Each structure stands twice: as C-alpha cells, then as structure tokens.
C-alpha cells in the first residue's frame, strides 16, 4: 500500500459487509465511477442505488434473506445488479459458470436449492434436458430477451429481467453472513459450493489490494469472468480503495491492448495461459501504449513472465489463493523471486505437511495447509456437503490439496496438484464429472480422465477409454456425445482407446501411471483432427 490508508483500520469489523462498505464509500467517493461494463457505468452512489433497487425487486419476487439466487450470465451489468441486490437484502447469490451443462448444472442447481434463476437469453439452451421437477426453481428471469422470447417453454414461470424496484433499506448483515456460493471443481467428486461470507470478500480486496498497491483513483481492468473469484475480488479492491473496476466482455488476444489503452487501465488481471497467447502475436508499439504498471497473473511460466515484462514494461505478480481461502501467498513489486509464487500474507498461518499432517522442514515438498487469523476471512465450508467440509478442514486446517515447498527465505513454490483435478485456461475441471459423461456413452465401459501438458501453460484434458465389447465408435463420436453435456472447456482434447487401465490390487485405477504415460503415437488429438466444438 502507498500512503497511510489501511482498510483494516478504516473499516472495523462492523463495516466489513457489502451494504456497510457501499454506504461508507458513497460518503467519500459519491460521484466517482465504481463499476463500468459493456457501456454502462455506475458511480459509487449509483451502485448503491442498484443494490437497494434490485434488493427491492428480489423481495417483491418473493426472495427472502438467506435464499439462494442462481445466476448464469456473462460479463454484463445485470450480473452485478443481481449480485449487489442479493448482498443488500441478505440473499445469497450463486454465480454459475456459463459453460456449465447437463450433469454438472443439474447438480449445482439442485445442491444450492436456488429458487430463482437469472439467466442470459443466449444460455437458455443450457437448461434443455434438466429435470426441473427435482429442482427448487420457481421463477426464471431472462436477461436480454424480447418479451416474446421470454416465454420459452419451461415448467416454471419465465419472465424478462425486471427493472430495479423501489429502493429498500439494507438488511441487518454480519461479516459472517454468506454473501455468495461459488462452485469449484477442485477434486475428483461433484462440484462443491464454497460458502463465501461478506467478510471473506472484504479481506480478498484488502490482501490483493496490498499486493498490487491499489490506490484511490486506480483503474482496475479485468477481462476475466464475474462468476469466478478473481473478477469479483477486483470489484472489492475498487470498492474498498476508491478505485474503478472496468469489466471487459471477455479476453481477446487481438483487442487486449486497444481496450486497455482506451480504459486508462493502471492494473489488470491475467491467467497463466493468457500471457503466452499475448506473446504469440508479433511484437508491436501497441504493447507499450498503455498506463498499466502491474498485473496479477498467477501460473505464468517464468520465461513468459520475463519476456512479457521486456516487451510491455508490465510487472507480472504471482499469487496463490483458492476459493476456499483467500489471497494467502503472493509476490509484490518489491519482493519477488523468479520461479516462486511469493511469501505468506500477514493474516494467515501456513504449514507444509505430510500425509498425517505432520509439519515438514523447509525444502521438502508436501501439502499446503492454511489457517486464518482474521475472523471470516476464509470460506465457511461446502454448502450441503458437511462430510466434505470436515474432510477438507480436518485438524482445524484448510487442506488445499496442492503440493508446495517453502524455502528458508519464506518463499513458496507450487509443485503440483495432489488432488485429481485439471486446470485448463483458468478453469478447474473435475475429472470425475467428465468421466460421468463419458461412461454414459453406450460404447464406453471405463474412462479415466487426467491432465497432460499444454503447449501454452496449465493442462489439456486427456481421456483413456476402454470400450465395451463389440463397440467401435470413433473418437469424433465420443466428442460429439460430450457436447452439451459438460462445459466445452472440459471436453477432452486427447483420447486413447485402451484394452484396460492400470489398476491397484483392489481394482482402483492408477491415474498417476496414465499421467506418466501421457501422449503417444496412438493418441488421437481433437485439434489435429480439425474438430470444432459447438458451444
């Protein structure tokens, strides 16, 4: 942080909720732009009006404090209107990845027990095939639909997205009250709804703001989706520090530098694969025609980080945080080490442990476990999954499932994922959920899904498949079967047809052997085959 402003002091515990933050910051920055997206901008005062007005609309629709409101919407103002409206009146928003389909989407809507669904018209096809009789949804609000289109046949009431209603007073809300439930595919099982309280997002804004040295008047420009933690985090950075969040519709390699220059961005946010993609374009003067001083960019390969800084002048800062935790480890412009994520943030305790949770010495890799020292700065568990909550928070530590190592200087380095998850283009993919779709194909007997190295960064999805006797489907047929049944980014790129899978003595598939085996001369590659996915 620069200057004397310290949010932890400026905002005592009672003010660490969305309504209290909005009311306090309106008194300081009333006419400054807080949020800008798709040609719509709100000052701090107007954002408060959106919150109070849409809270009134939600209440009129029968939503009560504590109810869940599901949202399937791209980066547009309506998303934030619902998010703030829920926060103001004490409902709990449930942002859902717009690529969610089939088995996963049914689970999320069922598990969250959402009674209202807000969905953008272009994603209505995602609802096809869902069993609405088993869901709690009573009303669907359709964003960006003409009145005649909003009556699409669904077994529930379907209406056009309403206008903001009469403003209502903020509900009595504590920092411990749930703000949002974010579904993460971080393990082999079903997607888990992470219960994020108001206080957690306050601290996201504080800790990340410290790392990036966010200051009053900064322009925080994100091309990342609002249904993920990263972009929501940047909104809280802007809210807390008197800055402006600019939300791009989506990340575009060809338009990235022009939109950054047009917004006057001083800080931006990237994910690992985005940097190599930007570097794949020829070097140009446009790469320096900006006002960005720093970018939060976790997971960028070291070579790409150095080349990006040389070409653009932008310092890329590493960071580590899970939806369950917060921004717990990171580098700063003054404290960086090539190849290392950074140091532990003041406000958390961390250990590197073995399989029995015994602490390991510096230099030895093990699982990273975390504990917060500030109340409500981490998630409260998994919605409707008490067994998973106890499992992950066992022994009073959050078990991240990530293998890391710490050096004697206090820097942490990410080694690999201990849990069986895949990360592709910034999205967590549950291998379990992909496997459930694959084995639903009548020709598939067994399927194992695992990550393999990408040409850019992070992972690509590979499936090893054992076919049922007498069946000979093509790989293309398997891929087409997956379309519409899972997120497009989760559909395997690589497929191996095998006679059997490696197993333990008790029959459990040994995925580590498949990962070690990786691709080979017989592996089918969707991109080489020239297949284009339908989204």
Number of distinct beta strands: 27
In what range is the share of β-strand residues? 15-25%
What is the arithmetic mean of pLDDT?
92
- First-last Cα distance: 42 Å
Class derived from helix and strand content: alpha/beta
Q: CATH top level of the domain at 7-195?
A: Alpha Beta
- Rg is 23 Å
In CATH, the topology of the domain at 7-195 is named: Rossmann fold
Strand order of the largest sheet: 2-1-11-10-12-13-14
Shape descriptor reads globular
Number of helices: 14
**Sheet with the most strands?**
7 strands, mixed
Low-confidence stretches: none
CATH architecture of the domain at 7-195: 3-Layer(aba) Sandwich
What is the share of helical residues?
A: 25-40%
Characterize this entry briefly.
The chain is of the alpha/beta class and 535 residues long.
What does it look like?
α2 runs antiparallel to α3, α3 (44-60) crosses α4 and α6 (198-212) packs across α7. The radius of gyration is 23 Å and the shape is globular. The protein is 26% helix and 24% strand. Among the domains are: 7-195, 3-Layer(aba) Sandwich (Rossmann fold), CATH 3.40.50.980; 426-525, 2-Layer Sandwich (GMP Synthetase, Chain A, domain 3). The strands form six sheets. A seven-stranded mixed β-sheet has the order 2-1-11-10-12-13-14. Strands 15-16-17-21-20-19-18 form a seven-stranded antiparallel β-sheet, with no helix packed on it. It has 14 helices and 27 strands. The longest helix is centred in the first third of the chain and has 17 residues, at 44-60. With 535 residues, the protein is of the alpha/beta class.
